[in-house]
Design a protein that fits this description.
About 45% of the residues lie in helices and about 0% in strands. By secondary structure, it is an all-alpha fold. The chain is elongated, with a radius of gyration of 38 Å.
Length: about 170
């Protein structure tokens, strides 16, 4: 029965020490960087939404002749199926994209790339902060369990001392 009342085994691998949590990691910057910020008008201009769409006439097919209405009064050949007959409508042709290349100003393109890099950096920082928070929560649970065991041990020893002192 030495396994029941024996000494507890000390883990061979020590638990990692958590890094101290920096409160400034969760704060937003006090001033915004305006050279990396694009307004809605700049974004519309970069996307080319301000320019009207032009379609070349040679790519468009001619309009088809209107079809004569079909006779829908005819009964289906199978009397068990009473499904309505759907008329065949001509499909509208899908317009092809412009043959001209789309141009974006170099400054706008660079600002978009800078904004993407900034977002990647912010996401990496948030991921690191999330890992730190998860680690601190795990250690917090372990510390709380250990503290509760120690308080229970102190309470038991105080009860034992009270019994000894006030027994006589």
């Amino acid at each position: 029965m030495s396994w029941l009342f024996g000494k507890k085994k000390v883990p061979k691998v020590p638990l990692p020490v958590p890094r101290s949590f920096d409160e400034g990691a969760l704060r937003f910057p006090s001033r915004m960087n305006t050279d990396r910020t694009m307004g809605p008008e700049q974004l519309k201009e970069a996307a080319g939404l301000n320019e009207p769409l032009t379609f070349p006439e040679e790519d468009l097919p001619s309009m088809p002749e209107p079809m004569e209405p079909e006779h829908l009064d005819a009964k289906p050949t199978n009397p068990q199926l009473n499904l309505p007959v759907q008329p065949n409508f001509p499909r509208t042709p899908v317009f092809k994209s412009q043959k001209e290349p789309l141009f974006i100003q170099v400054e706008v393109y660079r600002s978009i790339l800078g904004a993407c890099d900034g977002l990647k950096h912010d996401l990496a920082e948030l991921s690191e902060t999330n890992k730190l928070l998860e680690g601190s929560e795990y250690n917090e649970d372990n510390r709380f369990t250990r503290l509760r065991k120690e308080i229970k041990g102190i309470h038991d020893r105080l009860l034992h001392m009270d019994k000894i002192l006030f027994k006589s």
